[in-house]
Please model this.
Amino acid sequence: MTYAKFVKKDYNKMYIKADLHKIYGFLLIKIKDPLDNKDKPQLLVKDFFVYETVQRTGVGQTIFEYMLEMEEVQPAELL
Model:
């Protein structure tokens, strides 16, 4: 599991599940900085894709749970 970050004020992160020869799926989130420094950044799931050949094998859940762990958020906190 890995992720890529495109840096700017509001930026995107992509979490990718892959091995050496295949990509199984990805999750793209947008992170918006809060207007004041008191609030946590807001996260929005922009795109979520799992290849058909590995659907219903837990790949999507693995990607989603990894993103929640890395971003330290609960599902209810997502926009």
